[in-house]
Specification:
globular, Lipocalin, mainly beta, about 140 residues
C-alpha cells in the first residue's frame, strides 16, 4: 500500500429503544507498517474548534487503537474480549468511556486494509449503546467510496 491513503471511518450505534445511527467520515492520511503494526495518521477538523485534532490509528492482530491529540484527546483501545477505560476530553469538559470489545476483525490486501470492531459503549459507568466501527484504509489512487 502507498504512504498516501484515504481513511474511511464508519460507525453504527444500536441504542436501547432508538433507531440505529450511522456515521461515516473520509480523510486523507498517511500509512505505514512497522513490526507487524499498521499505523494510520490523519488530521480531523471539528466544527467550532480552530485547531485540528491529530489522529493515530494502530491496527494489529485482534486490536484496534484510536488516539486523538489536540483540542479533543483520548486513547480508545478495542481489544477482543477486553474492557478498556479511557478519558475522553473535549474543550467543554471530559468524561469516562468504557469500551467492552466483543470482536476485532482485520482483512488486508495489497492496496486495502480493513479493521472492524463490535463493542459495547459505556459513558460514566452507564451502558449507552452497542456499536460497530469499521476503519478502511486504501491507496489514494484506488480509492472508491
Amino acid at each position: 500500500m502507498t504512504k498516501e491513503v484515504m481513511v474511511t471511518i464508519a460507525g453504527l450505534q444500536f441504542a436501547d429503544d432508538e433507531e440505529q445511527e450511522a456515521i461515516e467520515l473520509v480523510h486523507i492520511g498517511e500509512y505505514y507498517e512497522r513490526n507487524g503494526i499498521h499505523y494510520i495518521l490523519f488530521e480531523e477538523l471539528f466544527e467550532g474548534i480552530v485547531h485540528p485534532v491529530k489522529n493515530v490509528i494502530k491496527i494489529k492482530e485482534h486490536s484496534l487503537e484510536v488516539q486523538k491529540r489536540g483540542p479533543v484527546s483520548t486513547s480508545l483501545l478495542f481489544e477482543e474480549g477486553r474492557k478498556q477505560r479511557s478519558t475522553y476530553a473535549v474543550p467543554y469538559g471530559s468524561f469516562l468511556v468504557d469500551i467492552c470489545t466483543n470482536s476485532v476483525r482485520i482483512h488486508q490486501t495489497d492496496d486495502r486494509l480493513e479493521a472492524t470492531a463490535a463493542y459495547g459503549l459505556e459513558i460514566n459507568g452507564q451502558h449507552c449503546a452497542d456499536c460497530d466501527i469499521r476503519v478502511t484504509v486504501q491507496s489514494r489512487e484506488t480509492f472508491q467510496l
